[in-house]
Amino acid sequence: VQLQASGGGLALAGGSLRLSCAASQIPYSFNNMAWYRQRPGKQRELVAVITEGGSANYAESVKGRFTISRDNAKDTVSLQMNGLRPEDTAVYYCYAEAQTMSMGPHFPQKGPTRDYWGQGTQVTVSS
Asked: What percent of the chain has pLDDT over 70?
């Protein structure tokens, strides 16, 4: 398992859930990490993204309610979801963009990035 998501479940409208995602067996550091979701009958959409330095951006629909965070030492990314609404019901996926490295003539150098996805965790919000 490379990205393992956890924390989904059932919540009442107005309630909270916290999603976590841990990377393992990936021998690279991560650039952006993010959470996506796929609502029933909809395409997958970006919910929140956080850079390696900790700058975060959010979809308009979740601003002020969701908070993304990461722990670079532990290779984890989390999503705190407050003020949940029925329209937040979706399968949530964590994503990580890994930065590959290779040995250059004199120094390590950046290679291409690689995308990793978690397996998805269901969040259901009832009214």
From this structure: 99
> Cα separation of 126 and 60, whole Å?
21
Cβ(97)–Cβ(119) below 8 Å: no
Q: What is the mean pLDDT of residues 69-88?
A: 96
Buried b (16+ CB within 10 A) or exposed e, 34-73: bbbbeeeeeeeeebbbbeeeeeeebeeebeeebbbbbeee
Q: With contact defined as beta carbons under 8 Å apart, do 7 and 120 qualify? A: no
Residue pair 2/26 in contact (Cβ under 8 Å)? The answer is yes
Expressed in angstroms, the distance from the first to the final Cα of the chain is 34
pLDDT in tens, 50-66: 999 999 999 999 999 99
Distance CA 30, CA 80 (A): 20
Helix (H, G, I), strand (E, B), or coil: what is residue 7?
coil
pLDDT at 25 over 90: no
Residue 1 confidence (pLDDT) = 63
Phi, psi of 32, rounded to the nearest 5 degrees: -80, 145
